[in-house]
Amino acid sequence: MPFLPTPAAAEASLWAIILFPLAGALFNGLFGRRLGKANVTLVAIGAMVGSLAVAVIAFSWVLTTRNLRFVGDPWINVVGADGRALLTVAWGLLVDRLSGTLLLVITGVGTLIHVYSASYMSHEDDAGYARFFTYLNLFVAAMLTLVLGDSLLLTFVGWEGVGLCSYLLIGFWFTDEQKAQAGRKAFITNRVGDFGFLIGVFSLLALFGTSSYAELANLARVVTPEAVIGTGIFAGWTWQAAVTFAMLCLFVGAAGKSAQLPLYIWLPDAMAGPTPVSALIHAATMVTAGVYLVARNSMLFTLAPAAMATVTIVGAATALFAAVIAFVQTDIKKVLAYSTVSQLGFMFIGVGCGAWWAGILHLVTHAFFKACLFLGAGSVMHGMGDETDIRKMGGLAGKMPHTHWTFLLATIAATGIIPLSGFWSKDAILGNALYSSNPAWHSVGPIAWGIGSVAALGTAFYMTRLYWLTFQGKPRTHAAEHAHESSFAMTIPLMVLAVLAAVALILGLPGHTAVSELFSHFIEPVFAPGTERLFSEKVGHFHAVAHPPWPYFAAWGLAAVGTWIGWTLYKGGLGGTVARWAQAWPRTYALMVDKFRVDELYEATVIGPLKSLARGLWRFVDVAVIDGLFVNGIPRLLGFLGGTLRLAQNGDIQRYAALMALAAAAILWTVLGAGSQ
Amino acid sequence: MNLLTVVTFVPLLGALAAALLPRDEAGQHRALALVVSLITLGLSLGLWFGFDASSGAAEFQFEERRAWMPSLGIGYHVGLDGVALLLVMLTTLLVPVVVLSTWAAVQDRVKEFMIAILVLETAMIGTFAALDLVLFYVFWELMLIPMYLLIGIWGGSNRLYATVKFFVYTFAASVLMLLAILWVSFNAGGTFDYVQARAALDVSTEQGRWLFLAFALAFAVKVPMFPLHTWLPDAHTEAPTAGSVILAGVLLKMGTFGFFRYAMPLFPEAALHYRPLISTLATIGIVYGALMCFVQTDMKRLVAYSSVSHLGFVMLGLMALSAEGLTGGVYQMLNHGVSTGGLFLLVGMLYERRHTRLLSDYGGLAKQVPWLATAFVVVTLSSIGLPGTNGFVGEFLILSGTFLSRMPGAQVLSVVAASGVILGAVYMLVLVEKVFYGPIRHEENRHLPDLSLREGLVMVPVIGFIVVMGLMPGPFLAPAKPAVDRLVQRFQQAEARLGLPTQVGTVSTAVASRPPPPPGGAN
Prior knowledge:
The complex is a heterodimer of chains A (677) and B (523).
Chain A: H1 7-12, H2 14-35, H3 37-64, E1 68-70, E2 74-78, E3 87-90, E4 93-95, H4 97-120, H5 126-148, H6 152-170, H7 177-208, H8 213-221, H9 239-257, H10 266-269, H11 275-284, H12 289-296, H13 298-301, H14 305-326, H15 332-352, H16 356-383, H17 396-399, H18 401-415, H19 421-434, H20 444-471, H21 478-481, H22 488-503, H23 505-508, H24 518-535, H25 550-570, H26 577-584, H27 586-593, H28 598-631, H29 633-646, H30 653-675
Antiparallel strand pairs in A: 1-4, 2-3
Chain B: H1 3-20, H2 26-50, E1 61-69, E2 74-80, H3 82-101, H4 110-129, H5 133-154, H6 159-186, H7 194-200, H8 205-222, H9 231-238, H10 241-266, H11 268-294, H12 299-320, H13 323-354, H14 370-383, H15 390-403, H16 410-436, H17 453-471, H18 474-477, H19 480-498
């Protein structure tokens, strides 16, 4: 290394990884609109390259020597009168093999997407262009904080930060009301998840008194799951129950960020943002944060088998559910969005059944092939004049050769056809799920394997359909006939990603050769304590064996069958068998096209009632009772009483005299008449 | 001369000077008010840097005692603890910002306006500084008069209803407090000195509860706590921008400060008794205020209801009686002053451009006024507690402090209150969306000017504090610590006197002790 020659020097400069893009965002945000696009591009990409460079050096130290840790000054620190400091959060960073892997993905894919965006967004005016790169740099800074933070709370800082950038970028073209609303929907759905995250953190604070990953792992190591807690909020609970509660709360956060059932609804709408954003945020990095969160807390999750079972089954259900919706979508980005939701489901199966490395490997390979697919979709849209409807495409293979072959490679990787990367990572997940056993629900692994296999079949089907309708067949519209290839600034990132999607296969190769299970061996130390607990006989909860090869062949067969079905149904373009099916079952078809009307369900059961409640409370409590009855009612009552009594004092001397006479008579009569007796 | 006294009365001197200036010279009045408020700010920095926040330092610093009406036991006694210091700083910081923000907005009776603002500043600082119950009450009521005039003279179309409502609500409750103050003095050896009375106060349980309620009522109206909040939306909506900013920024804190300084430490047993009620009302206020924001069509009214929600957080934090919750409550007072003050400033700027507060008259402004929109979004993020802004530190401390409180049922309250974080995001983002996003629906909105230099200067300190307090809360948390610790200990003593099971303080964690620092970075 020419500079940062020691691990200590690399540790001291860890913050540079985050501060580079943050400074880029600040600079472009403040001055970008005046500087012109070229300078904005230079600053934004320069910041990314700087960040990538430091990240690579840091990673190389992790690979060769040891983990890097930056011990930061306290950010929030509250010490009680008794000297205890439960809430101590430091600006500390940690690069181990897990965060190092994600670090490379974020800065690497991030840099590529910045390059791509420079061309893709060039039609924006200066202000818009600067704003875009401001947000994009800010996003990278937040995402890096999420991954590098050494405590749950610092992760939460990045967690909400990426949510903010996602909001700003989805609503980037905010003059379109629907796009602005999509951004808000994303933020608020994520906030629902963040609510769970916070409660989870509070619970962990109550249990362990810390939110630092290292301290949590240390403490979790010595916990006996069956022991009953003696003090504090969870007194009387077993450790297993309490940790399960906390982990389920954290998983609510993960499900929000990673678009799992039932909080996935924001991600398809998030496609309203510019396509590079969909590639970077809504495919490669941010949406995988939930998977990272579960993997990062593997030590705690192993104490909570029920939480792991929940993660597994939610992942499996989401994988299948989203795949089914993807069958009938006609918007190229929507298909990819549902595909992302589905693939994230696979990752959760992996981390849920204890195959942490497989989940993370799929995260990495997915980042490559899905970013490539999204950027390819962007290239197609560019060439087609912002057309996103695949029914209006077709035959683009000849018009856009570079986009075509990269998209094809990425499709094969996503489909899970041997030998590209997606196959190995997905199969590692499914194979491990099949042979895992969870004490809270013994058959959850095999069930997830079954559901996941069907979802894998579906993946092959919709990816083939997407590829075929877009690139093969005859052009179906004028625009498709005259589509043009995009610039090299856009196609070169595509090529790099496609090649990565292909060569990443080396990370997941099984067997017993020198390069077998490269990634598994590499990342194993991070999960070792968790895995130890899974396998330890003392706990005896999980078992997993080196599984026989037949699941590999089964998975391959499924991918082939799915591809074959897709090819058979769509080789003739639209119409044909599929159209007849749609006519034969119009309601089912409409339900699928309408995405099972989940948004409508939420509107009817949550959003609508909440609005009505607010309106009702406002009219009844504030306006009618508090203000009407009391605040204005009491003065009115007093006014009424005063008005009534005033009748007796109207200033009329004669009436006063008459009253006086009457009163005098009454008094006299009482005193004399009654007194004389 | 005592610095605190100087800081308190410099604005009043400025007001006297303004009274001598000719009425027609509006520019001179503005400049005078700005200079005086800046001098006050500069002097108050002496307080900030002179304050000793170490645990061994005196409870009240910059103390001054003078005889005022010795035969009645009334004295001029001022002094600051850390919490009062923070609130004084908030006041001296906000007033110059407010004066600068009125430069163009107030054209009518500038002289009287500036005098009212300066008198108000003295009253506000005096309220935080007072350590004599009568002195406190005098300053407390003195605040009402300029505020009443600000709304009543420079307010909107329905200002009369709003001023009367504001005045009657707060005055009626304050009168009860005056009775309670007299009662306290009778039962504390005839002194009105806060420190002496607090030590000497000897009342029965029953009396203590009544007295607590009398104080609490006055403060709860000011906070305002549900269901005593309905004066606030009217007052805010009708008040001029400057009035709204001071009202939200400082005056509402009088209520929470009153709880922290008077109601809670004077009557800890009674406070413990009513704690479930108050914390429940606070939680209701959080959710209720947020829900009310959903249905508002008037920007100022919406921001006013959001205050009800935010101040609910403060009260919940105070009632948690854990170091984390109390600290968070104090911090959230400052946050609310900065963020909601900032929101009212921005709404005022929009109003100056369009002369309407109705959401439906806006839409699509972000392209026209990008810097204004950016400032608005930043302040919004602070309001919804995004990490990195001041709002997060406060909300996080309050929610975790409540979750970790020993109060029975605190966890439920914390979880319900945390849902306010979701609701807060909903209404604030809807507000941003309706004002700045979407297509332009009204032609008038097409050619609005962006922030002027002066308006930029108004917003810079607001945004600066949002970021600095979000990233470096340490210097702002430190002064509060001794006061918070003292309050916790006071309650622990009260609890011991009552023989109750422990309900004060932070829970003990399930693991007995923190682990040794993790081993070095090796895999």
